Amino acid sequence: MDLTRGFTFLFEKVEKIFLSPGSAFSVTSLACALIVAIAFVVVRRRRRNRTVRLRTILHALFPSRITASASHSLDVGYFFFNTFVFSLIFGGAILSYQAVSNATIAGLVNVAGQTQPAALHDIVPRIAITLDLEMSAEYPVAGMTEWNFQKGNLDQATKDYAVEAGQIVRERGAVLHYFCVARVLEQPDVTWLQGLAEAGHPIGNHTYDHVYVLAQTPEEVQFRFRRSPWLTAGIRVGP
Q: Quick one: 46 and 77 in the same domain?
C-alpha cells in the first residue's frame, strides 16, 4: 500500500497554513505578531517603572480568561481537527480506495487472466490546445485596465510565457495553436513568433487589434474608440 498520497496531502495542508506567505497563521506572521506584542508589553511596563519578567509577559499575552474559555478551546479544537484529523481521514479514504481498487483488479486478473488493451477506433478524440496572444486587463495588478487599449502590444513576460508553453507542448509531441492579435507584428523584434512557427505551431489570426466584430456602434468596436471618440467621428457601424 502506497502511503505517499496520504502523507503528501497532510504535509501540503500544514505547509499551506504555516509556511504560505498569505496565511494568517504563517510562521512569519505569528513571529512578527509575537515580537510586536512583546515589545508593546515591555515598553508599557518600562514607562510605569515596573519590572519585566517572562511570567508577566506570558500572562499579558495569554490571559487565563481567554486561554481557559470554552470559546478558545473550541477554536483550537476546530483548527486541529480541520488541519490534522480531517487530513488523516481524507488520506485514509484515498488509501482505502486505492487498496480496494488494487485488490479488485488483482482478483479479476487471477480469475479472467491478463487482457490485451483494446485497439483504438479509426476515429479517435483529439485534444486541441490553443493560446490567444493578447494582453489582459487586470494584469499585473487588479484594477489596471490599460491593456484593454493595447491588446496586441505584448510585453516581454507574456512573450516568454508563450514561447515556454510552446516548448513544453512540443517536447511532448504535440503542437499549440496560437491566435495572434496582429498588432504585435508592429514591434521591432518578432523572432520569438517566427521561432514558434518554425517549431511547427500553427499561428492563426485573432483580428488586428482585438476588435469586436459584432459591434453596433463605433464605441463598441475597440476600447480605444471610447477613450478617443474623434477617431471614429462620422463613421457608421452595423447593418
A: yes
Q: What is the pLDDT along the chain (239 residues), one digit of tens a residue?
A: 455 655 676 677 777 777 776 666 777 877 888 888 888 888 888 888 888 888 888 888 888 777 788 887 887 777 777 766 666 666 666 556 666 777 777 777 787 777 666 666 666 666 788 988 888 887 877 877 778 778 888 889 899 999 999 999 999 888 999 999 888 898 899 999 999 999 999 999 888 887 777 878 777 777 777 777 777 777 776 66
Cis status of the peptide bond prior to 140, with omega within 30 of 0? yes
Residue 83 is assigned to a structural domain of this protein:
yes
What's the total number of domains in the chain?
Answer: 2
User: Which residue range forms the structural domain that includes residue 35?
Assistant: 4-112
Q: 124 in a domain, yes or no? A: no
Q: Are 71 and 12 part of one and the same domain?
A: yes
List, in order, residues 6 or more apart from 237 with CB less than 8 Å away: 215, 216, 217, 218, 220, 221
Structural domain contains residue 233: no
| Domain match, 62 and 98 both | yes
Q: Residue 6, class by beta-carbon neighbours within 10 Å (0-12 exposed, 13-18 middle, 19+ buried)?
A: buried
Is the pTM higher than 0.85? The answer reads: no
